[in-house]
Amino acid sequence: MIKLVASDLDGTLLLNGAQSVEDSMFETIGKLLDRGILFAPASGRQMTSLKRLFAPVAEELVYISENGALVSYKGKTIAKTPMKRELALEIIEDVLAQEYCEVLVSGEKTAYIKPKTKEYHDRMTKVVNYHTTLVSDFSEIQEDILKVAVCDLSGIEHSKEHFFKRWGNEAAAVVSGSLYLDFMDLKVSKGNAMKQIQQSMNILPEECMAFGDNYNDIPMLDSVGHAYVMEKAVDDIKKHGQFITANVEYTLKDVFHL
């Protein structure tokens, strides 16, 4: 019996660049909740942004945010894993030194930005609808740093090798979209977040279902008994799924006869 469904967002639940969840998906989630099945958005996005995105059902969901650095359920923090502050600030400095790269620094309640361009400012505040705080220097941040995200407006393919080579042994680094690469503490992943939820709620891996499409989803897919990979994902990702799907909502309706 499935007790928990987790889904990545961009490229998985949100297709073709969509930045909002379909009303029909809220209905589907509601039917799952009525059956006692938990639903968890699993994303590199911040908690505040996820709650806005899932507003009609926001108070009933489990949240895997910041790629697993912050996990919560009904206002209770299940797990929080910050980065080492000195390392985070060094990575930020390196990101800002790269010509086409912008940086997003995640705290628990807000994300900190110092935009180089209006395009990036608008993307974070209007397109992905993040709760953001402008800073003149990232050393001003007073709270724990959960994640440092690179946004390469020319495409993360152009800069990812630099970042993996420079920082890959010191921080968990994952590509999380066509423009983004995320750095977290080495212990952080969506998979570890899933295990923390399973332990906290006494749910077995075989009682969990997950959907994903990118490299940062692999640990989560490997931590559940029912792993679904999007058909547009590359073959490396598909190796970690037992099933292939084109649409999360349609699959849930089919599997659970909704």
UniProtKB/TrEMBL annotation:
Transmembrane segments: none
Alphabetically ordered keywords of this record: Hydrolase
PROSITE patterns assigned to the protein according to its UniProt record, in alphabetical order: COF_1 (PS01228)
MF (Gene Ontology): hydrolase activity
NCBIfam families: Cof-subfamily, HAD-SF-IIB
Family matches, as PANTHER family: 5-AMINO-6-(5-PHOSPHO-D-RIBITYLAMINO)URACIL PHOSPHATASE YBJI-RELATED, PHOSPHOSERINE PHOSPHATASE
Protein name (record): Cof-type HAD-IIB family hydrolase
